[in-house]
C-alpha cells in the first residue's frame, strides 16, 4: 500500500499541469472476474455500486470503495443488481431468491434484505434517498406493477395517472418521487408524486410519451421523451421549463443521473450511430469518451462531480469506470490511490505473489480529449 501511495502521488504530481488543463480523467474500476462491469451510482463518499459478471458469467451486484470491489451477493438465487446508493451506504436494487424470482432489495452493512411487494411476486428498488426511503416498482399480481415507496418496513402503492402501470425511479430529500405512469388511454407520461398526489410533468414539445428518470433536492427533474414524433432526447425540467439536451450529431440521447448542482449525465448518439457518455453543466454537453472502444454511458454523478458508468475497451469489453473532475487534484489522488491498491493486491494474488486474496482485475487509465 505504501508503494501504491508513492506511485499515485508521483503520478498526480507528474501530470499536475495537465490535470488543470483537462476536464476529466477516466479510471477503470475492475470487475468480478467475468470481464463485464457497469457502475450505476456514486454517493458523496465516493462509494460506487453497479453490477458485474463472475467467472461463471452470472451477474452480481457490487460495491466499490477506495480500490476494493466487493460482491454484494443475492437473496439466495443467482443474480442481482445494485442501482443506487445513499450517503449512509444503503444500497437499492434487486436480487433473486432461491426460486429465481427477482425481489426488490436493500443492502445494509453488506447484507441483502428483501423488500415487500404490492402483493405480486417481484419488484425492483431503483432509487434511495439519504433518509433511507427507497422507490421503484412492485407487482400487484402476475402482470401489473405500480410505482412503490418503501419507508421503514412498509411499502406504499403510489398509483398511476389512471392507467394500469407506473414506475418510480428516484426520490429526493423532501420525499418527492419521479418516474412514469400510464393514463387512462395507456399512454406513458413523466410524473411527480408529491404531497400524496401524482401529477404529469410536461415533456418535450409534441412528444407522444415521456419518463422522468431522476430528481435532485432542488426539484430539478431529468426526462426522456420524444418530440413531434421523433427520436428520444434527454431533457431537464426546471420549474416548468423543459430544456432539450440534444445529441452529439446522432438521433438519440438519454439522461440517467443528476446532482444538486444541476449537472446531468447519460449518453448521446454520434453521427456514426455509436454513443458516448456525456455530462451537461447547464450550458453544454461534454463528450466523456471511452476506453478505446466505440461506446460509453454515464449513469450517476455526485455533488463533487465524480461521474460513474461504463465504457467499452478497444477489445470490445464493457468496464465500470469513474470520470473524475481534473481540477480536483486531491480527489484524483484518492481515486488513483484506490486504483493502485487494486493493482498491488492483484499482483500479490497472482501466481508467485505474496498475497492470499483473490485478485480483482483493474487498470488505471488516463484519458485525454
Summarize the structure.
With 369 residues, the protein is mainly beta. The chain has helices at 2-14, 16-21, 329-349; strands spanning 24-30, 37-42, 48-53, 59-65, 68-73, 80-85, 91-96, 102-108, 111-114, 123-128, 134-139, 145-151, 154-157, 162-171, 177-183, 188-194, 197-200, 210-215, 221-225, 233-238, 241-244, 249-258, 264-270, 275-280, 285-287, 292-301, 307-313, 318-325.
Describe the 3D structure:
The chain has one domain (50-318): TolB, C-terminal domain (Neuraminidase, 6 Propeller). The chain is mainly β. The radius of gyration is 20 Å and the shape is globular. Helix 1 crosses helix 3. The chain has helices at 2-14, 16-21, 329-349, and strands spanning 24-30, 37-42, 48-53, 59-65, 68-73, 80-85, 91-96, 102-108, 111-114, 123-128, 134-139, 145-151, 154-157, 162-171, 177-183, 188-194, 197-200, 210-215, 221-225, 233-238, 241-244, 249-258, 264-270, 275-280, 285-287, 292-301, 307-313, 318-325. A hairpin with a 7-residue loop joins strand 19 and strand 20 (233-238). It has a four-stranded antiparallel sheet with strand order 1-28-27-26. The protein has a four-stranded antiparallel sheet with strand order 2-3-4-5. A four-stranded antiparallel sheet has the order 6-7-8-9, with no helix packed on it.
Amino acid at each position: 500500500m505504501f508503494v501504491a501511495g508513492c506511485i499515485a502521488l508521483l503520478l498526480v504530481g507528474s501530470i499536475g499541469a495537465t490535470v488543470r488543463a483537462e476536464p476529466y480523467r477516466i479510471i477503470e474500476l475492475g470487475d468480478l472476474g467475468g470481464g463485464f462491469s457497469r457502475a450505476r451510482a456514486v454517493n458523496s463518499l465516493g462509494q460506487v455500486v453497479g453490477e458485474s459478471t463472475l467467472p461463471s458469467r452470472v451477474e452480481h451486484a457490487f460495491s466499490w470503495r477506495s480500490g476494493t470491489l466487493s460482491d454484494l451477493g443475492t437473496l439466495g438465487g443467482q443474480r442481482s443488481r445494485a442501482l443506487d446508493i445513499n450517503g449512509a451506504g444503503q444500497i437499492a436494487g434487486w436480487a433473486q431468491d432461491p426460486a429465481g424470482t427477482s425481489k426488490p432489495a436493500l443492502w445494509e452493512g453488506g447484507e441483502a434484505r428483501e423488500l415487500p411487494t404490492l402483493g405480486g411476486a417481484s419488484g425492483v428498488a431503483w432509487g434511495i434517498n439519504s433518509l433511507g426511503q427507497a422507490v421503484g416498482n412492485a407487482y400487484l399480481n402476475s402482470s401489473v406493477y405500480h410505482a412503490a415507496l418503501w419507508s421503514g418496513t412498509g411499502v406504499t402503492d403510489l398509483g398511476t395517472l389512471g392507467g394500469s402501470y407506473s414506475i418510480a425511479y428516484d426520490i429526493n430529500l423532501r420525499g418527492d418521487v419521479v418516474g412514469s405512469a400510464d393514463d387512462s388511454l395507456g399512454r406513458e407520461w413523466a410524473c411527480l408524486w408529491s404531497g400524496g398526489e401524482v401529477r404529469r410533468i410536461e415533456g418535450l414539445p409534441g412528444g407522444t410519451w415521456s419518463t422522468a428518470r431522476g430528481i435532485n433536492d432542488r426539484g430539478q427533474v431529468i426526462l426522456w421523451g420524444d418530440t413531434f414524433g421523433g427520436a428520444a432526447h434527454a431533457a431537464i425540467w426546471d420549474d416548468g421549463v423543459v430544456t432539450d439536451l440534444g445529441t452529439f450529431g446522432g438521433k438519440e440521447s438519454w439522461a440517467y443521473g443528476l446532482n444538486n448542482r444541476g449537472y446531468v449525465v447519460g449518453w448521446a448518439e454520434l453521427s456514426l450511430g455509436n454513443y458516448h457518455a456525456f455530462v451537461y453543466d447547464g450550458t453544454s454537453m461534454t463528450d466523456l469518451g471511452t476506453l478505446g472502444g466505440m461506446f460509453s454511458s454515464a449513469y450517476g454523478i455526485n455533488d463533487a462531480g465524480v461521474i460513474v458508468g461504463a465504457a467499452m475497451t478497444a477489445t470490445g469489453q464493457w468496464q465500470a469506470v469513474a470520470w473524475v473532475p481534473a481540477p480536483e487534484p486531491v480527489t484524483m489522488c484518492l481515486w488513483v490511490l484506490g486504483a493502485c491498491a487494486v493493482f498491488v493486491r492483484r499482483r500479490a494474488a497472482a501466481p508467485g505473489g505474496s498475497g492470499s486474496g483473490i485478485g480483482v482485475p483493474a487498470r488505471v487509465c488516463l484519458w485525454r480529449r
